[in-house]
Amino acid sequence: MNKEAEKYLITLSDPRSPVSEAYRTLRTNLSFYSLDNPLRTLVVTSPAADDGKSTTVANLAVTMAQSGRKTILVDCDLRRPSLHTFFGLPAEPGLTNMLLDDDEPPLQETGVENLWLLASGPKPPNPADLLGARKVDRVIERLKEMADVILFDAPPVVAVTDAAVLGAKVDGVLLVISAGKTRREHAERAKELLQKAHVRLVGVTLTNAPKDDAISGYYG
Ligand SMILES: Nc1ncnc2c1ncn2[C@@H]1O[C@H](COP(=O)(O)OP(=O)(O)O)[C@@H](O)[C@H]1O
Ligand SMILES: [Mg+2]
After folding, report:
1. For residue range 97-133, what is the model confidence (pLDDT) as tens digits?
2. 42-94 confidence digits (pLDDT tens)
3. Which of 20, 53, 55, 120 to probe ligand 1 with, by most ligand atoms within 8 A of CB?
4. Dist. CA 162–CA 185, nearest whole Å
5. For residue 54, which phi and psi values (nearest 5 degrees)?
6. Consecutive H or E run containing 110
7. Closest-lying ligand 1 atom to the alpha carbon of residue 7
8. ∠ at Cα 170 (167, 172), nearest 5°?
9. What is the CATH number of domain 3-207?
10. Domain boundaries, the chain
11. Which atom of ligand 1 lies at the shortest distance from residue 156's CA?
12. Which of 4, 6, 11, 50 to probe ligand 1 with, by most ligand atoms within 8 A of CB?
């Protein structure tokens, strides 16, 4: 396991820790969110940078894969991609290759059974336009043919429109809030922006919380 994985992928480096248990609880809650219409595509976003989006979505993806579901993790934070570093993989090829060239998904093996990464790919000049394009719907459909669950890491929702645009194309959005860091008005603004974009907000997870309840505050 590389140093990044050890540090950020606690569900791999310390699966018995309370934090890993909290990620499994989150997985379970999401699985039960809608039994008739299971969430297969989920975007994770937050109000600002460094709230813990990438860490949350990556660990959630690991626990999904560990439960036997074929899982694809997609890095849609095209401005500040980071998921590839967690797995010691290159950032290219990835999503933007698929969008620009109509390629088949250049999935990378992560070393975790049942888990593949679709990295960001080369940085585009216009991430929001790219993520809003009709082609993204086709990419999502194609990924759904290849896996049970597809999780998308997104940029902060208050700063740019990408997350809300993408959120409207998937089954649900999970909002990450950082305890002690996220300002109340930013959390409210994030919720408002997502609701305006007609996304289905399926929950809120709290990161950076004191002690071992690193993710909590879930609502369904
Ligand atoms: N649940 C958590 N509790 C405490 N710190 C966290 C948590 N998740 C992430 N972090 C830390 O917060 C920082 C930003 O995390 P990252 O996932 O890259 O955020 P984002 O993707 O929102 O920019 C990292 O240093 C990470 O270790
Ligand atoms: Mg990130």
Report:
1. 999 887 789 999 999 999 999 999 999 998 888 998 8
2. 999 999 999 999 999 999 999 999 999 999 999 999 999 999 999 999 999 99
3. 55
4. 20
5. -65, -40
6. none
7. 27
8. 75
9. 3.40.50.300
10. 3-207
11. 22
12. 50
